[in-house]
Design a protein that fits this description.
elongated; alpha/beta; Rossmann fold; 2 domains; 4-stranded parallel sheet
Length: 157
C-alpha cells in the first residue's frame, strides 16, 4: 500500500458477518412462527419478533458480536444523509471521522455497493473477494480475504 492508512471502513453484512437477509427472513419467520404458535399467540409473537429484529438493526455491532472494538463511527439511516451505493455516503464518513479519502481503505464484499462508490469518492479499497472477475471500469486497489487485509495493513506500518 502506498501512503499512510489512518482509517479502515468495514462493511458489516457479508464482509465481517455472513448475512443473507432474504434467506434469513424467509427462513426465520416462516419456520419459527408455526413452532411457537402453541406458546405465544400470533398477535403477541409477531410484535415481539419485530422488536427483536429492530434491536438487531439498531445495534448491529452488538448483534454481530464485534462491539468490543474501538469505532469512530457506526453509520445508520438515522445519522447519514446518503446511503450506499452513493459516493456521497463515503465522502460523509470521511468528513465525519476527520480524514482525507486517500487515508482511508474501504473493505467490502459487494462491488456495486462497497467498492465502486468508495473509489469514486477517492478512497482506497480492499475487495473481500479472491475469485470473482473484476467488473470493467476500474480495479479495486487490493483484493483477497479478510486475513489478507490484516496482513497487508500490518506490513504497511
Amino acid at each position: 500500500m502506498v501512503g499512510l492508512i489512518r482509517a479502515v471502513l468495514f462493511d458489516l453484512d457479508d464482509t465481517l458477518l455472513e448475512n443473507n437477509m432474504d434467506h434469513f427472513l424467509k427462513g426465520y419467520f416462516g419456520r419459527l412462527a408455526p413452532h411457537v404458535a402453541h406458546l405465544v399467540p400470533p398477535e403477541k409473537f409477531m410484535p415481539a419478533l419485530l422488536a427483536a429484529t429492530q434491536a438487531m438493526i439498531d445495534s448491529p455491532v452488538e448483534w454481530a458480536g464485534v462491539a468490543d472494538f474501538s469505532y469512530r463511527l457506526v453509520t445508520s439511516y438515522e445519522i447519514m444523509h446518503s446511503c450506499k451505493p452513493h459516493p456521497r455516503y463515503y465522502s460523509e464518513i470521511v468528513d465525519r471521522i476527520g480524514r482525507k479519502p486517500q487515508e482511508c481503505v474501504m473493505a467490502g464484499d459487494d462491488w456495486d455497493n462497497d467498492i465502486a462508490p468508495a473509489v469514486r469518492a477517492g478512497l482506497r479499497t480492499y475487495w473481500v473477494n479472491a475469485t470473482a472477475e473484476t467488473p470493467s471500469g476500474f480495479d479495486p486497489h487490493m483484493r483477497g480475504s479478510l486475513i489478507g487485509l490484516v496482513e497487508r495493513l500490518a506490513d504497511s506500518h
